[in-house]
Specification:
Layout: H1 2-6, H2 9-24, E1 37-45, E2 48-53, E3 59-61, E4 76-82, E5 85-91, H3 92-97, E6 108-114, E7 117-123, E8 125-133, E9 137-138, H4 146-149, E10 152-158, E11 161-166, H5 168-173, H6 175-178
Parallel strand pairs: 2-11, 5-7
Antiparallel strand pairs: 1-2, 1-8, 3-6, 4-5, 6-7, 9-10, 10-11
Length: 184
């Protein structure tokens, strides 16, 4: 029975492919240096490049249709139905700097759900996932507002650009962020 299989032309073809593959196969690449790295979602608020820790962002979306909320603070744009869940949609530029984001084709929504605080955060632009090596970490971050500095937990310098690490956890725990109604 084994001789009949080995005489089969298909078996010979497979053996020939295996032989040629082994001849042309490259060796396993060697990693000479292991470097610790950190990854985050890169985005922009105004002129500032920021990073959100990868695990703190649930999803990224274009801005959905909104329903206004009477009596809400100016930075609360409204409610949106995201996959059957109602989420408050918040203008991060207006919340932090007091300047509303100019909504355009680059504007994105970062959805968060951190320790029971679910919200959609409107940002000027999302660049995507970025990776940084530990040696790119820096204590220095260029001049930014005190309001913004409150939410930064570090920074990276890569290719001449500073990226602030924006703590969405710290944001979600901020009493001012949680109080969306205007007090009368």
């Amino acid at each position: 029975m084994a001789a009949a299989v080995e005489d089969n032309p298909l078996f010979e073809l497979l053996r020939d492919i295996e032989t040629r593959s082994r001849q042309k196969a490259l060796g396993i690449p060697q990693q000479l240096e292991v470097r610790d790295s950190w990854s985050g979602i890169s985005f922009r608020l105004g002129r500032i490049r920021l990073l959100a820790p990868f695990g703190e962002v649930s999803e990224l979306l274009t801005l959905p249709p909104l329903t206004r909320i009477p009596g809400a603070r100016p930075w609360v744009l409204g409610l949106a139905n995201i996959r059957g869940s109602l989420l408050p949609i918040l203008d991060m530029g207006n919340f932090i700097e007091g300047e509303a984001i100019d909504i355009n084709h680059r504007t994105r929504l970062m959805v968060i759900n951190i320790k029971g605080v679910a919200a959609g955060l409107v940002v000027d632009e999302v660049y995507g996932l970025r990776h940084f090596f530990d040696e790119e970490k820096t204590a220095f971050f260029p001049q930014t507002s005190q309001q913004m500095m409150h939410y930064l937990s570090g920074a990276y310098l890569q290719d001449g650009n500073y990226w602030g690490v924006f703590s969405l956890l710290r944001l979600s725990q901020d009493a001012r962020f949680r109080e969306v109604a205007v007090r009368k």
